Amino acid sequence: ELQAIIFDLDGVITDTAEYHYLAWKQLGEDVGVPFTREFNEELKGVSRMDSLEKILALGNKHNDFTADEKMSLAEKKNEHYVSLIQNISPTDILPKIEELIADIKKMGLKLGLASVSKNALAVMSSLGLKEQFDVIVDAATIKKGKPDPEIFLRAAELLNVDPKACIGIEDAAAGVDSIKGAGMFAVGVGSEQSLSKADIVYASTSELSLEKIIEVYNKIK
Ligand code: G16
Ligand code: MG
């Protein structure tokens, strides 16, 4: 029996995935590694330092910087990202998300957040959503980021529910891997192609339907 829904933040609840992209793209250009939106799919849901390593590896530059220099590059990206999210407000919540949250609560299901972002709490407060969630698991609470299942497993544990009784919602391939690794049902938001491991995929949040998701969840169980 379904007991909880666990959301990813960036790219599912709000479009901060775009701001992460813009900030990394700038950083990539600064270090001489320009990259495409297609490559950016590989960065979604991936922690700050792991993202930097992927970008440097793309340009074969992973050995060109010391650990300290890498820290400063990551810091520089974060300062840019933080400046981009300065003015976010509840109007930046993606379509249908507030309705979905209301429906989840109406059904008596628990609500969790699983974001590897160190900025997750700040973003959730700016959106006015922090208080609605029963549990928020962010970078501070976990050792291994997505695609490792740790973050979704921790959310289930803190919600005191069996992972099999949870549905996770993600926009990133690394996030879908994390959900599936945790033994949960995965809802993908984005392209079928990059989220092929999800149990159901919606092109955008405006198409999300809790009724339909639960129908497919019950069929698979
Ligand atoms: C998010 C983003 C990633 C970002 C990561 C770390 O994860 O999807 O692109 O690199 O957080 O963010 P920060 O640099 O703010 O710590 P999620 O799990 O919310 O999708
Ligand atoms: Mg995401």
From TrEMBL:
<dbReference type="GO" id="GO:0000287">
    <property type="term" value="F:magnesium ion binding"/>
</dbReference>
<keyword id="KW-0119">Carbohydrate metabolism</keyword>
<feature type="binding site">
    <location>
        <position position="170"/>
    </location>
    <ligand>
        <name>Mg(2+)</name>
    </ligand>
</feature>
<dbReference type="InterPro" id="IPR010972">
    <property type="entry name" value="Beta-PGM"/>
</dbReference>
<dbReference type="InterPro" id="IPR036412">
    <property type="entry name" value="HAD-like_sf"/>
</dbReference>
<feature type="binding site">
    <location>
        <position position="10"/>
    </location>
    <ligand>
        <name>Mg(2+)</name>
    </ligand>
</feature>
<feature type="site" description="Important for catalytic activity and assists the phosphoryl transfer reaction to Asp8 by balancing charge and orienting the reacting groups">
    <location>
        <position position="146"/>
    </location>
</feature>
<feature type="active site" description="Proton donor/acceptor">
    <location>
        <position position="10"/>
    </location>
</feature>
<keyword id="KW-0479">Metal-binding</keyword>
<dbReference type="InterPro" id="IPR006439">
    <property type="entry name" value="HAD-SF_hydro_IA"/>
</dbReference>
<feature type="binding site">
    <location>
        <position position="171"/>
    </location>
    <ligand>
        <name>Mg(2+)</name>
    </ligand>
</feature>
<keyword id="KW-0597">Phosphoprotein</keyword>
<feature type="binding site">
    <location>
        <begin position="43"/>
        <end position="48"/>
    </location>
    <ligand>
        <name>substrate</name>
    </ligand>
</feature>
<dbReference type="InterPro" id="IPR010976">
    <property type="entry name" value="B-phosphoglucomutase_hydrolase"/>
</dbReference>
<dbReference type="GO" id="GO:0005737">
    <property type="term" value="C:cytoplasm"/>
</dbReference>
<dbReference type="GO" id="GO:0005975">
    <property type="term" value="P:carbohydrate metabolic process"/>
</dbReference>
<keyword id="KW-0413">Isomerase</keyword>
<comment type="similarity">
    <text>Belongs to the HAD-like hydrolase superfamily. CbbY/CbbZ/Gph/YieH family.</text>
</comment>
<dbReference type="Pfam" id="PF00702">
    <property type="entry name" value="Hydrolase"/>
</dbReference>
<feature type="binding site">
    <location>
        <position position="8"/>
    </location>
    <ligand>
        <name>Mg(2+)</name>
    </ligand>
</feature>
<keyword id="KW-0460">Magnesium</keyword>
<dbReference type="InterPro" id="IPR023198">
    <property type="entry name" value="PGP-like_dom2"/>
</dbReference>
<protein>
    <recommendedName>
        <fullName>Beta-phosphoglucomutase</fullName>
        <ecNumber>5.4.2.6</ecNumber>
    </recommendedName>
</protein>
<dbReference type="InterPro" id="IPR051600">
    <property type="entry name" value="Beta-PGM-like"/>
</dbReference>
<feature type="binding site">
    <location>
        <position position="77"/>
    </location>
    <ligand>
        <name>substrate</name>
    </ligand>
</feature>
<feature type="site" description="Important for catalytic activity and assists the phosphoryl transfer reaction to Asp8 by balancing charge and orienting the reacting groups">
    <location>
        <position position="115"/>
    </location>
</feature>
<keyword id="KW-0963">Cytoplasm</keyword>
<feature type="binding site">
    <location>
        <position position="51"/>
    </location>
    <ligand>
        <name>substrate</name>
    </ligand>
</feature>
<feature type="binding site">
    <location>
        <begin position="8"/>
        <end position="10"/>
    </location>
    <ligand>
        <name>substrate</name>
    </ligand>
</feature>
<feature type="active site" description="Nucleophile">
    <location>
        <position position="8"/>
    </location>
</feature>
<feature type="binding site">
    <location>
        <position position="146"/>
    </location>
    <ligand>
        <name>substrate</name>
    </ligand>
</feature>
<dbReference type="GO" id="GO:0008801">
    <property type="term" value="F:beta-phosphoglucomutase activity"/>
</dbReference>
<dbReference type="InterPro" id="IPR023214">
    <property type="entry name" value="HAD_sf"/>
</dbReference>
<feature type="binding site">
    <location>
        <position position="24"/>
    </location>
    <ligand>
        <name>substrate</name>
    </ligand>
</feature>
<feature type="binding site">
    <location>
        <begin position="115"/>
        <end position="119"/>
    </location>
    <ligand>
        <name>substrate</name>
    </ligand>
</feature>
